[in-house]
Amino acid sequence: MSTPVVSIEHVGEHAGKEVSIRGWLYNLRESGKLLFPIFRDGTGIIQGVISLKEHPDAFNAAKGLTQESSVVVTGKVAAEARAPGGYELHVSALEVVQRVSESQPYPIQLKEHGVDFLLDQRHLWIRTPRQASILRIRAEAERAARNFMDSQGYTLTDAPIFTPAACEGTTTLFEVDYIDDQKAYLTQSGQLYVEATAAALGKVYCFGPTFRAEKSKTRRHLTEFWMLEPEAAYAHLEDMMALGEGLVSAMVQECVKNRARELEMLKRDVSKLEKIKPPFPRIMYEEAIKVLNENGNPAKFGDDFGGDEETIISKNFDKPVIIHRYPAAMKAFYMATDAARPELSLSFDMIAPEGYGEIIGGGERLSSYETVIERLRQNNLPEESFQWYLDLRRYGSVPHAGFGLGLERTVAWICGTEHIREVIPFPRMLYRVYP
RNA sequence: UCCCCGGUAGCUCAACGGUAGAGCAUUCGGCUGUUAACCGAAGGGUUGCUAGUUCGAAUCUAGCCCGGGGAGCCA
Question: Is the CB of residue A114 inside 7 Å of nucleic acid strand B?
């Protein structure tokens, strides 16, 4: 009869019973003829106790064992107030799967480390309980986002990574040599492609990595980040603001519900997240300018909002804030304008609370062939590359709208992390592509 | 691209013009309830690179390289 293998997160269900845990040695404290190893298995950590007198074989196998050596341990689960986590394992047997060499000890210690060092060790850094928690929350947020979109009747239609042209500014494109004289670029957004699939399927979204060659070095920027981009035919600005509210609320609430342990591990103030339910405050761009002026910020019509401005505006609310109808001149070529106020675009941004910045940008798209042509020329974009896009206006053009949600910024806000580099398994940033 | 800050042992830092140091990690020894355990000992360094100032430079100066934070731009 072999003992059952259990995960540490479920170990409490086996109190008083003999179990096996397959994992790694997280830390080892020695106290004479008693050893206090801490094991981790990816789902949590648990302290073991090994007595020389009772289990000499296990004791000798564990004594001097190096951090992060892989082990299979067997023992009895016991409720123990003195143990971190409430349970400990009275180890009776320990099998070392691979012993970490003393000459090349595990580099990450149980103490503070610098950012540069940790990023160089990212492949190992993700083993720490904090990083593992963040990655579980990211997964939860992704799952919640897809479930929500699917529940709203949206179909996932993935957009290509290689594209023939820009869809945002041309200066932020990663160029890739393709066949002979052809150029390809890494996508900045799946937006143009979901416009096409929206005309085919009605309500669609894409979800995948996007790339921006921006020279941005801030805690809110990654060179490679994931974006969820819904697009719906016959939809208008109002529809997208409502969809964005529902999507963000679902992502936050599912994490609160299903990842309470991880949020607690991160010491996140969950009461702030529990409030994130529709409706969110909505203000027009012009009103936002007014709020800024009242708070001593000299912003004027036509200015874009930077981090400072976003913080001032979001500070007045405990939910994400939707700012809509930005000046048309500030927005991308495909953005529709307000018929009543042609100088304003039918666009909106959603600003996360607590200074996490813009998590959604979107709006209603141009549907007129003539206007699209005109804007392409104004923006010096190559018409020949956009013939397929123009076809969408030639053949049954309809009003349509959508937005892009930045996954990492949203998850960073949910987790309360200082920097978004922690919320993606392997961050790609300016000057950093290792590991 | 611009503005600030930094680079000393494997890691986190100290020394700020006069012999390069501590804690952690590693090795050895001790400890039956430890909580980033503790106690004792040992090994471990071209102070990011190059040039300059000086009797003497980790320390002052210049240039370069690397990293961090921010601006612009964006999600």
Answer: yes
Segments forming the whole domain that contains residue A17: 8-98
Taking only the tens place, the pLDDT of each residue in A364-399 is 999 999 999 998 888 888 888 889 999 999 999 999
pLDDT at A132: 94
Q: What is the mean pLDDT of residues A279-291?
A: 93
Q: Is A101 exposed, middle or buried (0-12, 13-18, 19+ CB in 10 A)?
A: exposed
- Nearest-CA residue relative to C1' of B23: A111
pLDDT of residue A171: 62
pLDDT value, residue A169: 56
Total domain count for chain A? 2
Average pLDDT over residues A257-283: 94
pLDDT exceeds cutoff 80 at A102: yes
Does the nearest atom of strand B lie within 7 Å of A412's Cβ? Answer: no
Whether CB of A189 is under 7 Å from strand B: the answer is: yes
Q: Are residues A186 and A262 in the same domain?
A: yes
Q: Does the CB of A32 fall within 7 Å of any strand B atom?
A: yes
A133 and A86 in a common domain: no
CA separation for the pair A95, A74 (Å, rounded):
9
Q: Is A112 near strand B, with its CB below 7 A from some atom of it?
A: yes
Question: Mean pLDDT score of chain A, rounded to an integer?
Answer: 92
CATH number of the domain enclosing A419: 3.30.930.10
Q: In what order do the strands lie in the sheet with A357-364?
A: A155-156, A203-211, A224-233, A400-406, A357-364, A347-352, A321-324, A282-284
Distance CA A202, CA A133 (A): 37
Element (H, E) at A46: strand A45-51
**A279 preceded by a cis bond (ω within 30 of 0):** yes
Our measurement of CA A217 to C1' B20, in angstroms, reads 35
